[in-house]
Amino acid sequence: MGKNRSTALLKFSCDGAGDRGNSEEAAMSGVRVLVGTKKGAFVLTADGTRKDWQVSGPFFAGWEIYHVKGSAVDPNRIYASQSSGWFGQLIQRSDDGGVTWAPVDNKFVYDGVAGTHQWYDGTPHPWEFKRVWHLEPSLTDAETVYAGVEDAALFKSTDGGVSWSELAGLRGHGSGPNWQPGAGGMCLHTIILDPANQQRMYIAISAAGAFRTDDAGCTWKPINKGLVSNFMPNPTAEVGHCVHHVAMHRTRPDVLFMQKHWDVMRSDDAGESWHEVSGNLPTDFGFAIDVHAHEPETLYVVPIKSDSEHFVPDGKLRVYRSRSGGNEWEPLTAGLPQQDCYVNVLRDAMAVDTLDECGVYFGTSGGQVYASSDAGDHWAPIVRDLPAVMSVEVQTIP
Amino acid sequence: MTEKGASASVIRVVLPQHLRTLAGVGAEVALDVDAPVTVRRVLDALEELCPMLRGTIREYGTGERRPFLRFFACEEDWSHEGMDAELPAPVAEGREPLLILGAIAGG
Lengths: 398, 107
Known about the structure:
The structure holds 2 protein chains of 2 kinds.
Chain A: E1 9-13, H1 24-28, E2 30-37, E3 40-47, E4 52-59, E5 64-70, E6 78-84, E7 88-94, E8 102-103, E9 116-118, E10 124-126, E11 131-137, E12 145-150, E13 153-157, E14 165-166, E15 187-193, E16 201-206, E17 209-213, E18 221-222, E19 243-248, E20 256-260, E21 264-267, E22 275-276, E23 285-291, E24 299-304, E25 319-322, E26 330-332, E27 350-352, E28 360-363, E29 369-372, E30 380-383, E31 389-397
Antiparallel strand pairs in A: 1-4, 2-3, 2-31, 3-4, 5-6, 6-7, 7-8, 9-10, 11-12, 12-13, 13-14, 15-16, 16-17, 17-18, 19-20, 20-21, 21-22, 23-24, 24-25, 25-26, 27-28, 28-29, 29-30
Chain B: E1 8-14, H1 17-23, E2 28-34, H2 39-49, E3 69-73, E4 76-77, H3 89-92, E5 98-102
């Protein structure tokens, strides 16, 4: 199989992201930021000080890279979703930390009769595979990886992405014919594995809502009680909500945070019920949400003006941080543009590292990838001029 | 590459740039294809030689041409002739290539 080697290797210095000195521990460890863009993938690496960055790529130049994510079991094992309107879907795999890549497989076939979901006009529409939005490597086995796809379904590979089979119990949930696409398509975009319970995982679909399995994907239940979506005929219906993203802290797997189409939500009972924690946010529309690596009550969102104006409000790029699990939010602006900025930050385009002082990263539709090495107090761009960023993940390398 | 039979011809195929990069091949790919030479047989041989191209030219499941791709043979649009229509003699005899083109779309 063809190997795709980095075509460029550039070095950038990132000086504005806080000044904490170079501890020996920080210098020995490092981070690898995996960036998917509209026109290729990039790998950004730095030591634990997170000041000097190497940028490699583009990998798969010209292709849309919806997501790139590494295995927690084997950090050198990285999966990438490569797609194109012309040529369809490919899954790429690296076994050397993103230096070289090889296509593995791209056969995503729905289990049994695909059936129909609702089209935008409410008519039945056949399920059609379009692309992989999200890849979630297993927490315990480097060969196992899950794929969330459009039209919404969940696939699993147990051989490193070489073959895929659908976990059909999700689409088999009786509500499937009532799911409908959001503006970006009917995508399964969020997969969260419970680190304390291998039988449990969460997924989210636009626009169906959030679902949970407690039997490793055989059966699923919608977990949308408390969500209110005024665009729906029944705003509190069991399914139909446009959930944009969900985040969890690994030490508290029953506590979930959600950025919905509108509203930032919180659940303290594994999704059985939700309550709003938008609080003083300037707008509670948005896509990205994430949790501090060491503080389970510290979370981050990037408010976006509205569903019809997908850019930050007032021309200011502001990350909002809550240290109280929601409701009370503070804008984080140091190092971020505060005038004439009209970018978006997509749902998978924010991530945190696990170094002692938590690093936070996000990418924009304008091609910037920003990093903070002090939990959001100060920011600086790692790169400014990539293609539009679709996803950002980070690996903390010992 | 297919087993070369008594009636096999060497067919020339020109791929879009992205698929050349993906497959690690040059401007043209030479394939042994048994007669009668059809698009289906050419793609079967191509995918056997370059398995990473499976699903990129024709859809899994239906086996149909992906909608943003076109086939051209001897300067004629062969996209709608059907997978099992015999290709023109100059292509079947290797004098002319089968062109697989991506639509000019998407900006």
